[in-house]
Design goal:
disordered N terminus, four-stranded antiparallel sheet, mainly beta, 30% strand, 7% helix, 319 residues
Length: 319
């Protein structure tokens, strides 16, 4: 499907409460744990603030971290986390129609974080931990709890230029990580319950031609996690999940041209609370566009896009 068509409107929902959640991403080879550092300290502080805010909202009767008034999504729903150029990191809760509510500040010092991703290991539909990649090359795993401590998983993870979680790709209980090295090889890290990994699995070469790779959950309705990739000519491709950690993706399906209008693609689950995974793209002018998932087919996983915001070009990280 071509991406440059438009769609009007959006489903009106109850008022969305501003909660707090923080996020993070992941990196490369697994090394020995090392002493604490500034990146891990700042990530842990943000995790603690998220957990405190989430706890307050739960006590107020919300069924989800983000939704109030009885309307809750049926699928995974994550907040959008964004860090600006000064290193301040913010939480933006979904507003139920593809956009986001008022932001909450989670902390500072995130200019020492180069990548981040959120994971839902207990499968309650909310993020419960992050992986964050420091500019020092260390990967940190941080549970979203009030006494959060960032576990240092070792150095060398800056060998990867793209690290993120698309969800459960290999059939294990916890969410996995995808990592692309700088030679274009894509690797799968199957995660353990404590945030560490089984030995990585080589998925294949040639991924260096992709300018963007994103995904969170099931995009085609078959119950398996999928990803979207955009090549250098701007063509978007869907890689349907298989559920097999040795070969987690089936034959790719062409989605259409024009995806190079975006400098960032963010997949954080179901943002309009219809039970289907969605996608958000940021264009060069800072406009934010929402793609509602159809959850029905490989060839057309999204409805026509809707513009849901402006001014997002000040954000260095979005995840």
């Amino acid at each position: 499907m071509a991406i440059l068509s438009g769609r009007k409107g959006g489903r009106a929902l109850s008022r969305i409460a501003v909660a707090a959640i923080a996020a993070a991403l992941v990196g490369t080879t697994a090394g020995a744990a090392s002493a604490d550092s500034a990146p891990s300290t700042n990530v842990a502080k943000a995790a603690q603030k998220y957990a405190q805010a989430k706890g307050k909202q739960s006590a107020a009767g919300s069924q989800r971290a983000f939704a109030a008034g009885g309307e809750t999504p049926a699928a995974e729903t994550f907040p959008l986390i964004a860090a600006d150029g000064s290193g301040t990191v913010y939480l933006y809760p979904p507003n139920g129609s593809g956009g986001f509510g008022d932001r909450t500040t989670l902390g500072d010092g995130w200019n020492a974080i180069s990548q981040a991703t959120q994971v839902d290991n207990n499968k309650d539909g909310n993020p419960d931990a992050w992986y964050t990649l420091g500019t020092n090359g260390h990967l940190y795993y941080t549970p979203l709890v009030e006494n959060a401590v960032a576990k240092d998983l070792g150095a060398g993870w800056n060998a990867y230029d793209r690290v993120f979680s698309a969800g459960n790709l290999g059939g294990a209980p916890t969410d996995d990580l995808l990592a692309r090295d700088k030679s274009g090889v894509l690797w799968l890290y199957t995660a353990n319950a404590d945030g560490t990994f089984a030995p990585r699995v080589r998925l294949g070469a040639g991924w260096g031609v992709m300018t963007k790779i994103a995904g969170r959950g099931d995009l085609n309705g078959d119950g398996k996690a999928d990803i979207i990739a955009v090549d250098g000519s701007g063509i978007g491709w869907l890689y349907p999940g298989t559920g097999n950690s040795a070969a987690p993706f089936g034959n790719r399906v062409k989605l259409g041209a024009g995806w190079n209008t975006y400098n960032n693609l963010v997949a954080i689950g179901d943002l309009n609370f219809d039970g289907k995974a969605d996608l958000v793209g940021r264009d060069a002018s800072g406009g934010l566009w929402f793609y509602a998932g159809t959850g029905t087919t490989d060839a057309a996983p999204f409805k026509d896009r809707v513009k849901v915001g402006t001014g997002w070009n000040g954000m260095r990280l979005m995840f």
